[in-house]
Every structure is written in structure tokens, then in C-alpha cells.
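Example record for the data management plan.
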Amino acid sequence: MFLSSVTANAQASKSVETTVSETSVEQAMEYLTSDELAGRDTGSEEIDMAAKFIETKFDESGLVPYFETYRDSFMIGDLHGFNIVGVVEGIDEELKDEYIIVGAHYDHIGNGKPVDGDEIANGANDNASGTVAVLELAQKIGELKENKRSLMFVLFSGEEKGLKGSEHLAKKLKEEGLDLYAMLNIEMIGVPMKAKDYHAYVTGYENSNLAEKFNEYSGEKVFGFLPQAKQLNLFKRSDNYPFYKEFEVPSQTLCTFDFSNYPYYHHVDDEAEHMDYSHMSQLIEKLLPGLVKMASTEEKEIKLTD
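Corresponding structural encoding:
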């Protein structure tokens, strides 16, 4: 059944094909993972620099702030954190009040266990890679202007403190009555998976038909199932989960860290030099047709499983 749908959907996807520049990805990664940003710890002066960079990118891509400004502020004890929230409004008068959230966390842990005098945990794979993917998708979606539903692009802070930024925003949007269709979170996509017939796995794979429908929309097997993700309950360990709890809609994380392809989790050697920019740019490109189709179907076809 999947193979029979590939040709038709590949044709449908042609109108949204666009190239993601490896150079653009690399330049953003180099800045976000620079020692100047000191590991982007929530509450630090350096994460404010990262936030300003993201705000500039959102503005250049034509995103409008969802709130009064791009910043959605919250407190973790005496630490001031802020999510960055921008919107590409839908072009359909009826569907534009339905939202899809595309997010990633842009914070990291600051310092880690020193190695050869280096104590800055620059957080390239975790999660500058996901941050850059959101920035690139926001730019391309903003250029295409084909989405009938509105897309909200969010960069979360406080993830490393216990999903604090996403918990805050999910509750806030729920209280405001946001009509949320689905939430797609991007986490650790800096290196490709090994020996898989898909490009990224999604957490909570069995919780919805997201992977099945997204692959159908894309005309290829973009998302698949990774057993370790279920065994380690990764569904509850990233910024998708607060939205699932609050809204009870499909809310899942896509990732390419498969526990065998990258040894530097929360390590000071999680540096930009280890990232595969060809893989990253190609994966981001593969997300575009599925996202545009998600945002344009007449009905909400992606649903939680019973």
C-alpha cells in the first residue's frame, strides 16, 4: 500500500521541493555552538545572545510574534527563561485558526566534565541541530506560503532543567484555548542513523498515525520505529510531552540519535565539527513536503490511536 502511494505523493510534493543550504545550516550551527555562547545554559547571558540570533532569523523569515514579542517568559526558581515563538499564518480563512507547532529546545547544560582543559558543553547535536532545523523550516515555510493551517515555530528554553519551557507554554496555550492539531519536536539530528530504511525515528510511534501519514504525504519513508525509543520511554523525555499532556493530540519528537551513532551526549566534545551537514540539510528538506501537506488537508487526518 505504501509503495502504491509513493508516485502520486511524489508528484504532489513537487510544488514544495526546495533546497536547504548546507552552508546556511553550518553557519548557524557554528554560531550556536561557539564558545562565545558558553553552552547556552538557561538563565545565562549567553543564552540571551542565542535568543537574539533566533529572533533575528524569525524576523528575516517573515514570522510574526505570537505574543506581544517573540519572547515567552517564565521563571525556574530565580532563573529567567524564555521560549521564542513565531508564526506563519495559514492562508485559509477557516483553517488558519488551527495550529501545528514545530519546536526544538535551544538551551543546553552550559559546562560539562572538563576534557583537556575544555569545560564548555557546546551542545551541537543536543540541540543546536534541532534549533537550526526549526529555523530552516520556518524560513522555507515562510517563503512557500502554501500552508492553510497556521504553523507556530517554537524554540524552547529550560528543556535541560526538566522540560520547563515547554511545560509553561503548553499550559499557557491551553488556557488561551489554542486549537492545536499536532506538535512535532526536533531533537538531535546532527548525524545520520545506521543501517535503517527510514531517515528519522519518532518517539511514541504507536501513539498515533503520524509516521504513517507523514510518510504518505512525503512519498517516501521519512519516519520509522526505533525499539530503544520505546524501551527508554523517550516519548516522555522531550518537549513534545507537555503538549500531549495538555492537549491530548499527536505530539511527538523526531530524532536521528540511535544510541550507536554518536558518543558525546552531554559531553564537552559535542561540537559542531562532528555534525554531518549534508545529512542535516537533506533531512530538513525531506520534512518540508510532509509539513506542508499536514498544514493543508481539509480534515485533521493525523490522530491518536485508540
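Summary line stored alongside the record: The chain has one domain: 2-294.
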